Amino acid sequence: MRHVQQEQYLDIPEGVTVQIKARNITVTGPRGVLNNSVRHIDITFVKVNDKQIKLLMINGNRKQVASIRTVKSIVNNMIIGVTKGFKYKMRAVHAFFPPNLDVRKDGSLQIKNFLGCKKSVVIDALPGVTIELSKAQQGELIITGNDLQNVSQTAASIQQSCVPRNKDIRKFLDGIYVSEKGTVVEDM
Questions:
Q1: Identical fold at 3-83 and 86-183?
Q2: Is Metal-binding one of the keywords (predicted)?
């Protein structure tokens, strides 16, 4: 069944500008500029006023109409990124061999001694993402950035690089896991 017209409204906070041209979205805020393209989704953006944008789809089926909410979430995450930023905390878990975590000068992470292995693993941070070791907690990483997709993908790459191979994962729970998700600028 075709839906004649579906629409969602997106509120723009103070101090943030959103520019949309040919479904290329540019969000500018106090923490920087983010760009994203949603050219693959047939959606219309209508500027209601300076504080609100309407996302509109005409004659879409059920799956196409569901993509309106996805695009709204993408733009909303971009707005949160340029105002507050995103922060993931990861903890190294080990039973016997503690992994050595080292942040290199180029921003990549080097993991040594995982499950007692001699081989070291190097994970590069995606653009706009910084990795640092926590000063308060040993074995904790703090991953920060403005783009949620890049921050979460960097955390996923770190977690997937530390999987016990050829071992029973019910017994060998060693690895580096996401312990906390939040924003860089904390809400009061």
A1: yes
A2: no
Cα angle at 93 between 91 and 95, to 5 degrees?
A: 165
CATH architecture of 86-183: Alpha-Beta Complex (3.90)
Q: What are the two backbone dihedrals, phi and then psi, of residue 85, each rounded to the nearest 5 degrees?
A: 80, 165
pTM of the model: 0.89
What length is written for the chain?
188
Q: Are 112 and 122 in contact (CB under 8 A)?
A: no
DSSP 170: T
Query: For 51-77, how does the pLDDT look when each residue is reduced to its tens digit (9 = 90+)?
Result: 999 999 998 888 889 999 999 999 999
The helix (run of H) or strand (run of E) holding residue 33 is strand 32-37
| Structure-token match 């019910």, residue found | 170
CA–chain centroid gap for 27, Å, is 16
